[in-house]
Amino acid sequence: MSLKFTKMHGAGNDFVVLDGVRQSVALSPEQIRYIADRHFGIGCDQVLLVEKTQRDEADFRYRIFNADGGEVEQCGNGARCFVRFVHDQNLTSKREIVVETKSGLISPRLEEDGRITVNMGLPIFDPAQIPFVSDSTEVIQPLQVGNESVQITVVSMGNPHAVQVVDDVETAPVATQGPFIEIHPRFPKRVNVGYMQVVDREHIRLRVYERGAGETLSCGTGACAAVVAGIRRKLLDNTVHVATRGGTLSITWAGERSPVMMTGPAITVFEGEINL
Ligand SMILES: N[C@H](CCC[C@H](N)C(=O)O)C(=O)O
To answer: N or C, which end of the chain is more exposed by having fewer CB within 10 Å?
Structure first.
């Protein structure tokens, strides 16, 4: 079977995007891992599958698969690439679209200047709603990692995040500690691990060891989660520029019961066809 694909990235977080509207796509976890493999396949952090939706209030469905083959609830950088894709492929002419995802509806918008803004929905930090992420109502929670205790703030953007504040992202233990927190027994669905350096109240630097993908150059939901965590820790104002290794995302959160708004780039790199 051959499958047309589009290779894209959002601030260096890269994707293989598949059109499941005009071609029938049903992939096993092994096939996802093959597509994502940077030596034997195409190579990407996540595979994004665009499909028709059954929900009247939505325009499309958008499914997200990590490089390890697992399907997950949400992907922020992917949402921007998704809206660029459906426009470039003439699948819609609407500038603001409503998209069904595994964790609910999001609404990305293609701005006049080409930038893309996504309403990422409400962050969740109530332990009653996300027992697989949080076990306390405290903003800062201790987590024992090996023989050290770290302080995390947990946030769900549909997908789970554990965020730490560090003095310098360049020396943060992303590669050595991130993998242990990702699979920590405290997180039965595993977790994305964020390391945030606060530059000032409107600027942070961020690195994320992503669940199912490892460290990526950028993580959209991770940027949302870090800003929400920083605001809840009273370290940040409502609009924050998030510098990641792959580019800058702008995040706005007006506080409790407000959605998180994310603005950033979405780039198409090449198109191709893969034999599966
Ligand atoms: N690794 C994430 C999915 C991709 C999220 C990230 N690439 C983004 O831009 O939000 C998870 O397992 O929840």
So the answer is: N
Contacts of 96 (CB under 8 A, 6+ apart): 107, 108, 109, 110
CATH number for 2-117+266-275 (one of 3.10.310.10, 3.20.20.140, 3.30.70.1140, 1.20.1440.230): it is 3.10.310.10
Answer whether residue 113 shows pLDDT above 90: no
197 is in an annotated binding site: no
| Contact 210 CB / ligand 1 (< 6 Å) | yes
DSSP state of 220: H
Q: Domain locations in the chain?
A: 2-117+266-275, 127-258
- Dig out the tokens for 26 from the structure: 């049903």
Catalytic residue numbers? 75, 219
**73-92: pLDDT as tens digits:** 999 999 999 999 999 999 99
How many angstroms is it from 10 CA to the middle of ligand 1? 12
| Interface predicted TM-score (ipTM) | 0.97
| Residue 71 in marked binding region | no
The predicted model scores a pTM of 0.97
- Residue 1 — very low, low, confident or very high, per pLDDT cuts 50/70/90? confident
CATH class of 127-258: alpha beta
Q: Are 72 and 190 in contact (CB under 8 A)?
A: no
